Amino acid sequence: MDHLSSVAVIGLGSMGLGMARSLIRAGLSVRGFDISSAAITSLEASGGTSAASPADAVTGADVAIIVVVNAAQTETVLFGDNGVISAMKPGGVVIACATVSPAEAKHFAARVEEAGLFYVDGPISGGSKKAEAGLLTFMASGSTSAFAAARPALDAMAGTVYELGDQPGIGSSFKVVNQLLAGVHIAAACEAITFAKSLDLDISRVFDVITKSAGNSWMFENRIPHVLEGDYTPHSAVAIFTKDLGIVSDIGRQTKFPLPIANAALQLFIMTEAAGMGRDDDSSVARLLAKVAGLKLPGMDEA
What we know:
This protein is 53% helix and 12% strand. The protein is globular, with a radius of gyration of 20 Å. Strands 3-2-1-4-5-6 form a six-stranded parallel β-sheet, with helices on both faces. A three-stranded mixed β-sheet has the order 7-8-9. The chain has helices spanning 16-25, 37-45, 54-58, 71-79, 102-114, 127-133, 144-157, 170-198, 203-210, 218-229, 238-255, 260-277, 285-293; strands at 6-10, 29-33, 49-50, 63-66, 93-96, 118-121, 124-125, 136-140, 158-163. The chain has 303 residues and is an alpha/beta fold. It has 13 helices and nine strands. Strand 1 (6-10), helix 1 (16-25) and strand 2 form a beta-alpha-beta unit. The chain has two domains: 6-166, 3-Layer(aba) Sandwich (Rossmann fold), CATH 3.40.50.720; 172-293, N-(1-d-carboxylethyl)-l-norvaline Dehydrogenase, domain 2. Helix 1 (16-25) packs parallel to helix 6 and helix 11 (238-255) packs antiparallel against helix 12 (260-277).
């Protein structure tokens, strides 16, 4: 780890801030940038230092970790005014964590590599709690040299790093498969718990029974407590799955691969976002269904 003196984290949201803290705990020097002053304050309170721009964050850094929402933000951070490419020293490595299409990952990698930097196509899974604990799963691809440069930072943030191939785009392909399942499972969990409410069942009891039964899923177990508590604080927002299942749907349309279940789930997220809940927790799909059915879930009396 001696050769790795400095890491930049750009994007200090629910995932990026936890990742930065994991890097700090591992003894790495972390400089971060976010458009939110509250996020910067949280980073500084955890022992990191603030930067005025992505370029400022990566000046002198060996690794730049990009934890923004989508491809458009990734492109701006990398190639826009005061972007990473304008300031990072040759031989540094970019770890790009946003869920993007495989084609976009390949495009970004080519431009980054042209600038004399390495690129790890490194989407993540695990949620904010695993980000905070340094136990994320990375579905990553890139050259041997890119992984070597990124390894100390990856080890600090991850419970598991899957090295899935030497070409950028492979990691993103794995991630979109994961997001297909994640989005479908959230939508199904929300449909099931609202259906249970329509049957006049005690939904807390339903949760207890289902989590010990074959119908359980990781998403049911993780998201339905938000519904039971009526707390839709966005650990993962509805808009994330409008985007991610949109990527899945776009790929299916382009390749003529049928995705009937994923597209049904996508429509539920689109409807939930259209109803004004795009920035709320993705378990808000349950609230949408409850409103349509004339039901009241916890926390909806005040809505």
